[in-house]
Amino acid sequence: MKEIILGVWLGIQGYMDFKWKEIPLWFSVLGGMIGIVICIVEERIILDVFFSCLPGVLSICFSWLTKETIGYGDGIVLLVMGIYLPLSQLISVGMLAFFIAGIVALLLLTVFRKKGNYRIPFIPFLGIAYGLECMIRIGEKTI
Fold first, then answer.
1. Number of domains making up the chain
2. Which residues contact 120 (CB under 8 A, 6 or more apart)?
């Protein structure tokens, strides 16, 4: 159930990031609150949740230090994802998202002749990567 909640939440966040280049803070807080309730129900270890949230916190700090080279919204979404996912799965999803975004960026630079400073939203790639990762996990269970 939490996979569906996170997937829908990421899909909505990704759509908003793609369409308006920003995400509403209230929707991120709502996703985080639902995630906290799920953590309590599943009786997850607080230290595990803390470590899973670190990539999001570090991303927010990096965003502040680089004057939003990576947006605050990306860090907030990673932070909320850390509430739902174990650290290993979050890293896996994040690396896959960076890989997919890199391929798209390469296509935009070479085929569509976009400039190097062209900005693409990252949250849709997190949603795509999470969806792919879920499908891989389902495939592993059926084999």
1. 1
2. 101, 104, 105, 108
What is the C-alpha separation between 34 and 107, in angstroms, rounded? Answer: 37
Query: Which domain, by its residues, includes 6?
Result: 2-142
pLDDT at residue 140, as a whole number: 85
Return d(Cα 88, Cα 95) in angstroms, integer: 11
- Taking the C-alpha atoms of residue 143 and residue 141, their distance in angstroms, rounded to an integer, is 6
* CA atoms lying within 13 Å on the CB side of residue 23: 28
Give the SS3 label for residue 43. coil
Q: Which pLDDT tens digit goes with each residue over 48-97?
A: 999 999 999 999 999 999 988 889 999 999 999 999 999 999 999 999 99
Q: What is the pLDDT of residues 87-105, one digit of tens each?
A: 999 999 999 999 999 999 9
Q: How many CB atoms are closer than 10 A to CB 120?
A: 14
